[in-house]
Amino acid sequence: MFQLLLLSNLLWEYVIPMPMCLDVEGYNELSMEEIFDRAIVMAQYTYNLTTQMSEEFDENFSESLWYKARNSSTCHTASLATPEDSEQIQQTQSDDLLKVMISISRAWYHPLEHLVRSVAALKGACETMLSKVKEVEKKNEELLEEMKRILVRVHPGAEENAYPAWMGLAEVRSANEDTRHFALSNLFHCLRCDANKVATYLLILRCRVIHDNNC
């Protein structure tokens, strides 16, 4: 279902052990189905944008086959235990699935901030790429709130899991252009993969919660 995440040492990970309680205030205005529908639209839109960005970056900055072959970094979210196929997803409790989606979304908060700055400073990048990165940053924050709404409904009083921190800032700020491009290419590919996971999890979870798996 998902692309395999390739291995490298560019992005190191650690986990922030700071789970946060969710506030239920203001989360009961919409029906569960409406919240799911909004979240799924956001997630699919975000995935489409990340796909476009990744392909555009590779087309313009990663043209050689040798360079593409080097794109084998571990994503900073690889430390999260995520189900990798339909059977594993179905075996995962709804609240646990939501928590891992929230952790993925939170784990991209700072990388997306720096991705916006890096693309803005990237020589040869077109304006549309920058606008797409900014839009993904915005949608990631909005999607996080929608998923928290769902978690509060599915499992009131739940706490968020810890999430992995991104440690790749030195690479995206490197004075070496190849290092920068390699790091950015990896970020785009990881972002695309994680966006795909969230969109897929939401679709399956909607079927489970709203239609009792009768989809």
Tell me briefly what this model is.
The chain contains eight helices and two strands. The protein has 215 residues and is mainly alpha-helical.
How much helix is in the residues?
55-70%
Could you tell me the radius of gyration in angstroms? 17 Å
How widely separated are the two ends? Answer: 18 Å
Order of neighbouring strands in the sheet with most strands: 1-2
* Major sheet attributes: 2 strands, antiparallel
Overall geometry comes to: elongated
Kindly estimate the percentage of residues that lie in beta strands according to DSSP: under 5%
User: pLDDT under 50 segments (min length 5)?
Assistant: 1-24
Provide mean pLDDT, rounded. 83
Top CATH class: Mainly Alpha
Helix/strand-derived class?
Answer: mainly alpha
Count of spatially separate domains? 1
> Topology as H/E string?
EHHHHHHEHH
CATH T-level topology: Growth Hormone, Chain: A
CATH architecture descriptor text: Up-down Bundle
Contiguous helical run count: 8
**Total number of beta strands:** 2
Organism: Microtus ochrogaster (Prairie vole)
Coiled coil: 126-153
Keywords: Coiled coil, Hormone, Secreted, Signal
InterPro entries: 4_helix_cytokine-like_core (IPR009079), Somatotropin/Prolactin (IPR001400), Somatotropin_CS (IPR018116)
Note down, in words, how this protein is organized.
Belongs to the somatotropin/prolactin family. This is Prolactin-like. 36% of the residues are buried. The protein is mainly alpha-helical and 215 residues long. It has a single domain, classed as Growth Hormone, Chain: A (Up-down Bundle), CATH 1.20.1250.10. The chain is built from eight helices and two strands. A two-stranded antiparallel sheet has the order 1-2. The protein starts with 12 loop residues before the first strand and ends with a helix.
